[in-house]
Amino acid sequence: MDAIRVVGARENNLRDVTVEIPKGRLTVVTGVSGSGKSSLVFDTIAAESRRQLGEMLPAFARNRLTHQSQPDVDGLENLSAAVVVDQRRIGGNARSTVGTATDIAPLLRLLYSRVATPHVGYSPAFSFNDPSGMCPRCEGLGYVADIDLERLVDRDRSLDDGAIRMSAYQPGTYRWKRYVHSGLFDRAKPLREYRPDEWDLLLHAEEMTPPNPDREFPRTGTYLGVVPRFRRDYLAGGHSKVPQRVREEVERLVTRRPCPECDGARLNAAARAATIDGHTITDCSRLELGDLAAFLRTIEHPVAAPIVRAVVHRLDALVDVGLGYLSLDRETPTLSGGEAQRITLVRQLGSSLTDLTYILDEPSAGLHPHDVDRLIGLLRRLRDKGNTVLVVEHDRDVIAAADHVVEMGPGAGPAGGRVLYAGDVAGLLRSDTATGRALRSGPVPDRPPRRPTGELRITGASLHNLRGVDVSVPRGVLTAVSGVAGSGKSTLVTEVLPRAHPEVVVVDQSPPRGSRRSNPASYLGVLDLLRAAFAAANDVPAALFSPNSAGACPSCRGRGVIETDLAFLDPVTTVCEACGGSRFSDEALSHRLDGRTIAEVLALTVDEARAVLPAGRSALYRAADVGLGYLTLGQPLTTLSGGERQRLKLAAEPRVEGGVVVLDEPTAGLHPSDVAQLLQVLHGLVERGATVVVVEHDLDVIAQADHVIELGPGAGRDGGRVVFTGTPEELAAERGSITGRHLRRRLA
Ligand code: ADP
Ligand code: ADP
Ligand code: ZN
Ligand code: ZN
Fold it and tell me: How far, in Å, is the centroid of ligand 1 from the Cα of 12?
């Protein structure tokens, strides 16, 4: 058999794994969370392919890569170049749209430059990223940003009390000194009492030399009002060098409104005026992709034909994978991980390379069972082009569609890391493993629905594709919101519901703030307790046990890794040789608590820690409850999957008890056997008085809900309506509902 052969893999929890991945086939790697799927597929196979690709680079580049960690594996034979299509969002900036990410935008510009009336120029004249096409007012962004003064200044405070609510302007900072030492203001007077001319001077003054500065006024430099200073530092072009932390702060202080010149079209007047059959290029980029294809097909022009064919071909492929509701002008950072992943897949399908290994991370995430069928078609087409497709998945239908299945297990973390099964689906169905059992498991047991204790009303909701939706979410029960991808579920429950009822707590999958240096211990609040315990036991300051302050390894400054920037590749990170990745200084590691160093404590799993640590036990129990007992305390939050992050937030969020909690697809990344545990957690919350609302596609979760709200009937413009409300049983009996049809398969 022609296969990729992995011999003796030992990354993370893998225990000398030897396994074959047949080439030219669709292989699914499955297993309970934490069993080692990612360690095998991403940290071993994908990492080694990337490293070998690095070896082929010119020597000067290779020298900088020599420390790129080689995965812990004895051999990897027959490896072809790997393309990883993960769920990271594409393009983090507003200039990246569905049009640019799919390469359709340049084709459309070409079309307009050839056949539009009047004739404007070459195709860059239709590009908002090109000076000849961009709107001069907003420089192609489509919106203008400005400071929200009410958020920036606190009128009840004086300069001395930190009236300017930004960390860079807090008392003692360099920027703050320019204001208090300028000799222009009474630094102890609340801003509310400023005379109009003082107010103007503080906020809007042009650059000048203050007449009577005191001696501490920074010697090099002039005075500039807060608003122009802010604009120059953070809003003018080229501020991409502003660190992420500051950028987040700036984001909270600015408001955006559509550009008054182009009304969001991003293009200059000439480009906005050119039309084909009455449609401007902006009209085209605002149409849903399916409608755009329909319009383009009507263009009759000899020069246009080949371009139209190329565009329509791509649009059809996007519609085929269930993305027909998107539009070309949609900014990629607003796409969900699953949507971004499918866009990347479609782009790959259009490439002429073959014999690649495609590696995908849970492509079914965010997909309704109905859309999963289309996804499977896409994976098969990728395979049939002569590629090897390797997918980490839990979805029953994707597993059933595989040519070959590898199941990792049996448990999580140290209790996993072995191959339990490798072979075809028929064999898996007979095997005594978690996946085999889950696939064989009978219908979901019936559970009498609970009685609501009240309701949360939503009236006339009209955000995105919602059309005057009136619906009520029952209190005191578990509600599942279902519907195909793009039908409006997230819009309704994660945007509209919290705005209508501020008590709502949304527990989403986004990375928590500052997650680079955070880990489960810090996030759960256990770390501070641990540091205090270490400090007390050793009679030293607690800060010594922080890799972010006194305890930092001097070589990597507490990061544990060294990052090398390569101009033409992703930055390469290597483990710090001084601390071996522990992030701590030798001195910090010389102290112990009950025989363990702080680094050893952080290497414990949540399950191990709650047995031996006196501190923070209740938070650790909550983490174990949501199925995260296998995480180590010190694992960086950036290495967690979206689903794991979400469950960690659930464990760390005190307001969920007795409150109103919204979860967007909490089963993402969960094996069917883990879903059962998550359901216990959700039921427990409801039993203790909480209202729980989940956006879900998992039929087991929908079947176990007390109440279901289905949005639809389709996606985008064809969705946005409530098509069903009632119990799961009633939904299953509903002839017209696609969710109902799939649910019937799972209900008794
Ligand atoms: P799966 O993909 O099956 O959910 P993983 O391969 O991600 O499992 O994880 C297997 C084990 O390795 C888990 O115990 C996990 O906590 C651990 N692990 C994964 N990545 C890291 C990492 N970067 N650092 C430390 N431990 C890790
Ligand atoms: P679901 O959660 O059911 O997959 P969403 O609520 O994410 O659906 O999307 C519903 C519709 O709203 C889709 O047409 C989607 O493209 C659109 N939409 C969602 N988020 C945004 C956004 N930030 N900007 C513009 N349109 C959006
Ligand atoms: Zn503009
Ligand atoms: Zn170090």
Answer: 6
- Give residue ranges with CB within 6 A of ligand 2: 325-326, 330, 334, 464-465, 483, 485-491, 716
134 alpha carbon, closest ligand: 3
DSSP secondary structure letters along 389-409: EEEE---HHHHHT-SEEEEEE
Name the band, by pLDDT with cuts 50, 70 and 90, for residue 194. very high
49 lines ligand 1 (CB under 6 A): no
Which residue, judged by its Cα, is nearest atom 14 of ligand 2? 716
Gap from CA of 47 to ligand 4 centroid (Å) = 22
pLDDT tens across 127-167, in order? 999 999 999 999 898 988 888 888 899 999 999 999 999 88
Where on the phi/psi map is residue 300: left (φ > 0), alpha (ψ -120 to 50), or beta?
Answer: beta
| C-alpha dihedral, 717 to 722 to 728 to 734, nearest 10° | -80
Q: Which ligand is nearest to the CA of 141?
A: 3
Question: And the tokens for 579?
Answer: 């601390």
201: tokens are 């001077």
Nearest bound ligand to the CA of residue 638? 1
Q: What phi, psi does 241 have (nearest 5°)? A: -85, -5
Residue with the two structure tokens 């000067």: 60
Q: How far is CA 585 from CA 167, 367, 537, 562, 581, in A?
A: 29, 46, 18, 15, 11
Residues with CB under 5 A from ligand 4 (ion): 553, 555-556, 576, 578-579
- 75, β-bridge pairs: 7
Tell me how far apart the alpha carbons of residues 223 and 213 are, in angstroms, rounded to a whole number.
10
Q: Count of CB atoms within 10 A of residue 224's CB?
A: 18
pLDDT higher for 472 or 717? 472
548-550-552-557 Cα dihedral, nearest 10 degrees: 70
Q: Using one digit for the tens of pLDDT, what is the confidence trace for 65-120? A: 444 568 999 999 999 888 888 765 455 566 789 999 898 999 999 999 999 999 88
Q: Calculate how far, in angstroms, residue 624's C-alpha sits from the geometric centre of ligand 4.
A: 30
Q: 373-396 burial string, b = 16+ CB within 10 Å, else e? A: ebbbebbeebbebebbbbbbbbbb
Instruction: Tell me if 124 sits within 8 A of 132, measured CB to CB.
Output: yes
10, 11, 37, 38, best to mutate for ligand 1 pocket (most atoms within 8 Å of CB):
38
552 in helix, strand or coil? strand
DSSP secondary structure code for residue 463 in this structure: S
Report strand pairing: 143-147 vs 82-85: unpaired
Give yes or no for a contact between 595 and 589, defined as CB atoms under 8 angstroms apart: no
Among all bound ligands, the one having the nearest atom to the CA of 412 is 1
Ligand 1 pocket test target in 6, 10, 11, 13 with most atoms within 8 Å of CB: 13
Atom of ligand 2 lying closest to residue 366 CA = 4
Q: Which of 53-67, 122-136, 219-233, 316-330 is the least confident region?
A: 53-67
Token pair for 508: 């989403």
Dump pLDDT digits (tens) for 339-386: 888 888 888 877 767 789 999 988 888 788 888 888 899 899 999 999
- Report the percentage of the chain scoring pLDDT > 70: 93
CA-nearest residue for atom 17, ligand 2, is 464
